[in-house]
Amino acid sequence: MTVIGALARVEAASAEVVQHNLATIPGVIPFPLNEAAKLGLLIEAATLDDAYHLLHEEIKGVEGVLTVWPVYVDFEEQSLWN
Amino acid sequence: MELTRREFIRMTAMAAVATAAGCAPSPTPTPRPTPQPAVQAAEWIKSVCRFCGTGCGVLLGVHDGQFVALKGDPDHPTTKGLVCAKALFLPKIVYSPDRLTKPLIRKGGKLVEASWEEAMTLVADKFAEAIKTGGPDSVAYYGSGQALSEETYLASRLFKGGIGTNNVEGNPRLCMASAVGGYTTTFGKDEPMGSYDDIDYAQTFFIVGSNTAEAHPVIFDRILERKQTGKDVQIILVDPRKTPVRRVTDIYLDHIPGYDLPIFHAMAHVIVKEKLHNPAFIEKNVLFRKVVEGKTVDVTFEEYVQFLQAFTPEKAGAMAGVPAARIVQAARMFAKGPTMSFWTMGLNQRTTGVWANNLIHNLHLITGQIGKPGATPFSLTGQPNACGGVRDGGGLSHILPYGRVVENADHRAQMEKLWGARPGTIKDKPGLNTVEMFKALGEDKIKALLILTTNPGQSLPNATKYREAMGKERPNKPFVVVIDAYPTRTTELADVVLPAAMWCEKEGVYGMSERRYQLMPKIINAPGEGRSDFDILLDFAARLEERGVVPKGYVSSRFKTTADVWDEMREASRGTVYDFTGMTRQRLRQERGLRWPVPSEDHPGTSRRFVKGEDPLLDKGPFADDTLKPGEVKFYTGPNNRAVVWLRPANPPAEPVDAEYPYVLSTGRVLEHWHTGTMTMKAADLRRAQPEAFVEINPFDAEKLGVKSGDMVRITSRRGEAIIKARVVDTPRPGMVFVPFHWYEENSLINRVTIDAYDPASKQPEFKVCAVKLARV
Known about the structure:
The complex is a heterodimer of chains A (about 80) and B (about 775).
Chain A: E1 2-10, H1 15-23, E2 28-32, E3 38-45, H2 48-59, E4 65-74
Antiparallel strand pairs in A: 1-3, 1-4, 2-3
Chain B: H1 5-21, E1 43-48, E2 57-63, E3 66-72, H2 85-88, H3 90-94, E4 104-107, E5 110-113, H4 116-134, E6 139-143, H5 149-163, E7 168-170, H6 172-175, H7 177-187, E8 204-208, H8 212-215, H9 217-229, E9 234-238, E10 251-253, H10 261-273, H11 279-285, E11 286-292, E12 295-299, H12 301-308, H13 313-320, H14 324-336, E13 339-343, H15 345-348, H16 353-367, E14 376-379, H17 386-393, E15 399-400, E16 404-405, H18 409-419, H19 434-442, E17 448-452, H20 456-459, H21 463-471, E18 479-484, E19 496-499, E20 508-511, E21 516-520, H22 533-546, H23 562-573, H24 585-590, E22 594-595, E23 643-646, E24 663-668, H25 684-689, E25 694-697, H26 699-705, E26 712-716, E27 721-728, E28 736-740, E29 770-776
Parallel strand pairs in B: 6-7, 6-17, 8-9, 8-13, 9-10, 11-23, 13-14, 17-18, 18-19, 24-28, 25-27
Antiparallel strand pairs in B: 1-2, 2-3, 4-5, 4-19, 11-12, 15-16, 20-21, 21-22, 24-29, 25-28, 26-27, 26-29
């Protein structure tokens, strides 16, 4: 299992809708950060590659998400030799 | 409540995000129990990302001796906890199964495993033989902006001061040499005078030939943050390709590739015509110069104004293919400021690269948009240690450490004394530049070449020619040694391949774009028999000493560790404008890097050079000036303490399009991959995200060619061809195609197509412009 913490820069005016839409993605838990233009994201997936897919494809595809920055990754529970 | 390790990791991840965002998470999505003592966090060790020149601070998580986690370092003063997608995969890249683990020697046409003793004996014998029979200039070194500072310094020291050849080059010649030429011709010495701090004060960002959003994403985020939080912060973009930067741009100038110099002159024209220039700043700090029949001539401001008459917005717009009105808008916005300019390869990888750099500096100098918060010309760097290692440390054929040049007798004498070299060992002429070095290899004039941590078999322009130079079997073929952590398109051409440790497997210093030097610790061992490049260089030097081609003890009696070399480097910087004598190893272990000048151990480092009150060299030493008021600028490295505004011609690229080759090819990067893909292609999902090479073709051109997305397209130049899948997008302007250079498969090697013409001043090749024709396959 891989756990990623990420910071999303979003359109402030639609932050609540963006958070709602992000929450519908399996493996993604968005959380507010007391700043309208930013959301925190907790991403969990079986592998680092799967987590990256969520980050790169699913999350970035949500309307209102401007950029996403991975801030933390833990891959202790998976093999790196693949 | 008992806390599982997974829950602990989740909480750690959330806390890291909140810290990076500069605020607290609220509300939490999951219960937040109190951590139990039984749960052990990884040990977090501060380090630096090893990709681009941004120099992002990272924390490496180590658990049970394994590298198990990575996070952005929230305490890092410039990157503040952010990293990009590439950094996520660093552990996977380190643990890649195709790491080289044993020395390889070519026998019977094949690379076979060998012992270190056998390999190093062969390497030393071949180099010694070449030096004894052909002289010092029959050998050469080709290094990297990814090697540690200590490694580059040691290699340069060995070749220039020990063997006695200036045939010392590195891949920064391919990416940064024009920026070096720009800074040195305008300001007298290399490297940006400002820092990332300026981003937080700029009102105008002038981004030229830089896909900052993908190539330097963390810097781009800081720019975005400034634009979101500042009032009326605006971005001007000059780029023939609509990169993701375009999405946040206020003024966009998509010029014909290779024809941006007229734009810069036209902006200057508007600034002067509308009296937006800064006469007081010019009077005190600026000289005007041009070159006439090879000689530099001082001219007046009035002559400069007259020169600019040839570049009205209308004339320049016609030359560059952009609306004149946008040039006028850009000029006004630039002059208003504070303005921070960023540029990278779009400006540097050109036969007019130095001149283009000069013209950016011109705009800052005539407006006085320099030396105050938010106002500075800032060249972004492509590699993590091109600045600290190769540029500052003297890793190119014409330079010596810390602003010295080989053509200056005093500089040579200073380094010979410090190095303990025999007087006269350092040659008084530059060695071969990169393109000429590989040409000489192909002509068998270079008999032995050591390549360290770089992949010229893929990255050189006109690559077929130079691949043959390195690898084509022939009588008396030169001997090529490659030190690398991975198999590459260059190791396949080598006679000997030596397995290298990488990044967190060795300790040393990286110096990034804003003059910040940062220490990277060793946290794990290299796989198999891999050794650090530093250890290999030490071994190599000792063997050359034994064979009598380097003075006995020249290297072997001086250094055991990179820390030993670092102490000599600090000493080499003493009294120079780079002075970092106060940057001890101990300080680097404790701090998140320091920005030179750091002339004493109690100095905190320098955000802005040339500014009284910020630059310590204006307070003490040979450049001190007590007549200046705080905030005043003095370009103490320039002629008569001034910077130079150059009257440069707006020459066209080396190979303009014509009827036979009607399209401009430009190469560059994508977000997921880095340089020749040696590392990032190891990560399955980075590879999946961008699985194969592509050529971007504008829909207007695609229709003419009968090409649609997914079709294979043959791209042909006068030098070679590649066959690559089409992406029909409006990203490049009509008449231009763009291909990233990351992919190494045979048909995808785009550098078989690019041109090896280079800037006569910087010797940097023109990767950004060559003429090609296209055909659907």
